[in-house]
């Protein structure tokens, strides 16, 4: 008996190719979503781990996180002296510890986490400069991290705000840090008052809205779709309005402890400005 070998016809081959192309078209978006989800999970783990490092540091620093030594009536009494931060080239600033760069330098010097741990899985900017253990190397303008920290100010008014929260208060309503803000979208002079124009390193094609991980002072972490959080509290002040994470607005509830500086999140990558970098 003869055996017959039947090859694929052109139509059959085209059908197979079409099915393969269809499967690829279905699977690629799913794989992309899964990959982004995995990176976001890794990112949230890093943000939480950095805050855990700050908490560990506080155990030997009278309860305060890196950069704060006390809550005094002025900056010099509140923040770490620049002369004691080995890798910060700002040793004449008595209040250097309020700088985001200084706080990360202190954390790195204490081996709380690795420099790579401070870089987000979504980071694409070449302005990130990995910290190295070199004395007098880093200025306040250097970006050592993808993450923004709560902007700190000293003085009596800060007792009800962010400064008092830069410690082991375990406050589940105080935002301490989160993914940085990009400044490429919108007019920099007004972008901080317009949450709808905020862009994050997770935003697709440079388009708003901001979205990213934030960690609260009880160490729980959330991935937020927008830069606004309801029901925040800093020190003795509970905000009656939604808290814009990057803006310096005062809460309209101006009670005894209300409306003062430092009663909202105001995450920042540098001193004096909440704006991010490219």
Please write out the topology.
Blueprint: H1 10-58, H2 75-78, H3 100-109, E1 147-150, H4 162-165, E2 175-179, E3 181-182, E4 199-200, E5 212-216, E6 221-224, E7 228-229, E8 233-234, E9 237-238, E10 243-244, E11 267-268
Antiparallel strand pairs: 1-2, 1-11, 2-5, 3-4, 5-6, 7-10, 8-9
Strands, count: 11
What class, by secondary structure content? alpha+beta
How many domains comprise the coordinates?
Answer: 1
Which regions contain 5 or more consecutive residues with pLDDT less than 50?
A: none
Distance N to C terminus: 75 Å
Sequence of strands across the biggest β-sheet? 6-5-2-1-11
The share of residues in helices is 10-25%
**Rg estimate, integer Å:** 24 Å
Give an overview of the whole structure.
It is a single chain. This protein has 278 residues and is an alpha+beta fold. 24% of the residues lie in helices and 12% in strands. The chain has one domain (11-268). The protein is built from four helices and eleven strands, in the order H-H-H-E-H-E-E-E-E-E-E-E-E-E-E. The strands form four sheets. Strands 6-5-2-1-11 form a five-stranded antiparallel sheet, covered by helices on one side. Strands 3-4 form a two-stranded antiparallel sheet. Strands 7-10 form a two-stranded antiparallel sheet. Strand 8 (233-234) and strand 9 form a beta hairpin. The longest helix has 49 residues, at 10-58. The model has no long low-confidence stretch (mean pLDDT 82).
What characteristics describe this protein?
278 residues, two-stranded antiparallel sheet, 11 strands, alpha+beta, 4 helices, single chain
């Amino acid at each position: 008996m003869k055996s017959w070998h039947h090859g694929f016809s052109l139509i059959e081959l085209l059908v197979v190719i079409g099915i393969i192309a269809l499967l690829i078209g279905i699977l690629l978006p799913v794989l992309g979503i899964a990959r982004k989800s995995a990176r976001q999970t890794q990112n949230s783990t890093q943000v939480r781990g950095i805050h855990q490092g700050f908490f560990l540091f506080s155990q030997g620093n009278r309860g305060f996180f890196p950069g704060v030594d006390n809550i005094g009536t002025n900056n010099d009494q509140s923040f770490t002296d620049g002369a004691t931060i080995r890798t910060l080239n700002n040793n004449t600033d008595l209040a250097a510890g309020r700088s985001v760069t200084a706080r990360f330098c202190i954390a790195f010097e204490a081996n709380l986490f690795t420099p790579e741990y401070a870089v987000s899985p979504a980071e694409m900017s070449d302005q990130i400069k990995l910290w190295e253990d070199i004395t007098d190397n880093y200025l306040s303008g250097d970006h050592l991290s993808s993450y923004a920290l709560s902007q700190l100010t000293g003085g009596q008014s800060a007792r009800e705000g962010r400064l008092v929260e830069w410690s082991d208060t375990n406050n589940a309503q105080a935002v301490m840090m989160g993914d940085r803000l990009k400044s490429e979208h919108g007019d920099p002079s007004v972008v901080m008052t317009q949450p709808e124009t905020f862009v994050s390193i997770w935003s697709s094609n440079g388009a708003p809205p901001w979205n990213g991980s934030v960690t609260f002072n009880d160490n729980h972490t959330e991935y937020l779709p927008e830069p606004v959080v309801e029901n925040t509290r800093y020190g003795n002040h509970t905000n009656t309005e939604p808290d814009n994470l990057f803006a310096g607005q005062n809460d309209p509830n101006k009670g005894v402890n209300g409306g003062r500086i430092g009663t909202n999140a105001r995450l920042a990558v540098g001193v004096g400005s909440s704006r991010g970098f490219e």
